[in-house]
Amino acid sequence: MPRKRQAFVHVGLDDGSGDVVGTALDSHAHALLDLGVRRPAEPADGDGTWAGLRRDAGRGRDTVVLSRPLLAAAPPDRARHLVEALDAFDVHVVVTARAPDAWTIPGDPGRDLASVLDRWSSAVADPERLHVIVGADGAGTWRSFGRVVGFGTASLRVAPEALSLASGQDVVPAARAADLRRLAGTWADLLASSPYDVVGDLATLEPDLRCADSVDDLTAALDLARHEVELLRRRTDDLERRLAKSEKKKRKLKRRLSEVA
Q: DSSP labels for the chain?
């Protein structure tokens, strides 16, 4: 029986830590094709059958890589449907994570690493096909992602704006800092005892926090709000870029159809 092609589904936590992967895949699309790695067109939200993804991914002989925003928060059935749509492939899920930020709470479907791993490990079934990349910065995450998928990144640099995704020191009240450090310890213990392929230093999961006293509470809140607004802006820019790309394809298809008619 011929060996199945590989497909890698990138799931970045909803804290901006994995955005570097999607940005780099777009920036280096042509170079990656030369390396036998392709990012297929992805269906619009709500396409429960994922038929378009199945068709596009099935073309050629390349390794397929998917990376799209908000997959971390996908409910179990949606995660399962995506993996099932790629049943012709040897499917791997790659979760990228960093230390919990000030907005992370236990059980949060998009930001809590334990919650994300629970849903996606169920979808992929084989724990050896779930890879967790722990990184302190975007460049390191991208290098590790390349190693997991099987391509070198030495000549595929990360854009400066992607490097800025690494957050600065979060300013939080002392009680919140203690909660986040406990959560980070839970994540590290989970990964240390898991059967998953863990790449990176678990010590980087320790959050870089500065405790605010009562006088600084307002400043801390403003710092957190600015951080969250920046993440939302980047997500909006990414979604708008994908929408524009989709609209361009639609216009091109309409022109071809009119020429045939």
A: -PPPEEEEEEEE-TTTTTHHHHHHHHHTHHHHHHTTEE----PPTT-TT-HHHHHHHTSSSSEEEEE-TTGGG--HHHHHHHHHHTTTEEEEEEEEE-S--TT--TT-TTT-HHHHHHHHHHHH--GGGEEEEE-SSHHHHHHHHHHHHT---TTSPPPHHHHTTS---EEEEHHHHHHHHHHHHHHHHHHHTSSSEEES-GGGGS--EEEE-GGGHHHHHHHHHHHHHHHHHHHHHHHHHHHHHHHHHHHHHHHHHHHH-
